[in-house]
Design goal:
The chain has 355 residues and is an alpha/beta fold. It contains 14 helices and 14 strands. The chain is globular. InterPro entries: DUF1972, Glyco_trans_1.
């Protein structure tokens, strides 16, 4: 049996986040009997500490939160706890990979790093943070045995920038499928003031790089109905958008939805899904939306085209989005792609093949 440690996430049970959802779904039922996972979790973020979860062993790192400025010491301390007893260590993200040259000297077995979505290129970071993340990424690529890229665009970047091959492993989306009665779904639609197949939905962090302002502007001008789920009180940017567009009767700005039945119903009954992300690799929310078989209108960048195999609908600005909103669209190709590429059983097997 392979003993595999996972570091770099807040922990499980997953509260939020793409990497947390990844770990949640490669352990448990999707895990083969030949692999035993140990997941390192933040003692600061979990007041209730479980010893095991979905057959995985859980270990807690004190002192640090998993995100923000504490993510680097948190990841490094997690690595130091992995020096003995593991056949492979999976590091999710590059925050702690500045330490990888030293860790490589101390740990002689397999190191696997998922470098995520080119964090150092995100506009929200300052110069020092961008430099740090870029350096950490370089250390990850140089000293890891295996690099995981979640998108063909990321895979091409790794080859072009570092001359290194990487393994292409995306995310699953089938965990979003649930059994919710039609009656219950109708109750949920009534709660949010929308009708089936008469609105679009978008789910994301409210940030400039997700083009949240473009979506709001397009729907304000088109008159079409939008349910926009996100963290509307997190920043000046999100609060200003809420102030500007919150009074539009056709635009429903909804704070993050944690009730899975509600999120399922809103996705399942929509006319189409709008994906405004312009940065990163394969975005989990896009993969999740594809599993519903609804038409998808995505911002026109290589990552979104790779994820949807050029079979979605794409916009570059407000004018193009408005035009697409008024055209007939087909979502069946999205579901076909999701069933072929984005199931968690398939993703779990791809990771296990690396160990």
């Amino acid at each position: 049996m392979k003993q595999v440690a996972i570091v770099g996430i807040q922990g499980v049970p997953a509260k939020y986040g793409g990497f947390e959802t990844l770990v949640e779904n490669i352990i448990g039922d999707n895990c083969s009997p030949e692999v035993c996972y140990t997941v390192f979790c933040s003692g600061k973020d979990y007041t209730k500490r479980l010893d095991t979860y979905k057959s995985a062993q859980l270990k807690y790192i004190p002192l640090f939160h998993a995100n923000g400025v504490q993510s680097t010491p948190y990841d490094i301390l997690s690595m130091l706890k992995c020096l003995r007893g593991y056949d492979a260590v999976v590091i999710l993200g590059v925050s702690g990979c500045i330490f990888l040259p030293i860790f490589r000297l101390l740990y002689r077995k397999k190191i696997i790093v998922n470098i995520d979505g080119l964090e150092h290129k995100r506009a929200k970071w300052g110069k020092f943070t961008k430099w740090f993340l870029r350096t950490s990424e370089a250390m990850a690529v140089r000293f890891a045995d295996v690099i995981v890229a979640d998108n063909k665009g990321i895979q091409d970047y790794v080859m072009e920038t570092y001359g290194k091959k990487s393994e292409l492993i995306a995310y699953g989306g089938d965990h979003t499928q649930r059994e919710v009665s039609e009656e219950r779904q109708q109750e949920i639609l009534n709660k949010y003031g929308v009708k089936a197949n008469d609105y679009s939905i978008s789910v994301c962090r409210i940030e400039p790089e997700n083009n949240s302002h473009v979506l709001c502007d397009a729907f304000a001008k088109s008159g079409k109905n939008l349910v926009f789920v996100g963290n509307w009180n997190r920043s000046d940017y999100s609060r200003n958008l809420k102030k500007q567009y919150g009074s539009y009767r056709n635009i429903h700005l909804v704070d993050s939805v944690y009730d899975l039945d509600e999120l399922y119903a809103l996705r399942n009954q929509c006319e189409c899904y709008i994906h405004g992300h312009s940065a990163g690799g394969t975005n989990p929310s896009l993969v999740e939306a594809m599993s519903f078989g609804k038409p998808i209108i995505a911002f026109d960048v290589v990552y979104n085209r790779e994820t949807t195999e050029n079979k979605a609908y794409y916009f570059k600005d407000c004018k193009e989005l408005i035009k697409l909103l008024h055209e007939d669209k087909d979502g069946i190709p999205m579901k076909d792609i999701a069933q072929q590429r984005y199931t968690w059983k398939h993703i779990a097997m791809q990771y296990e093949a690396l160990y």
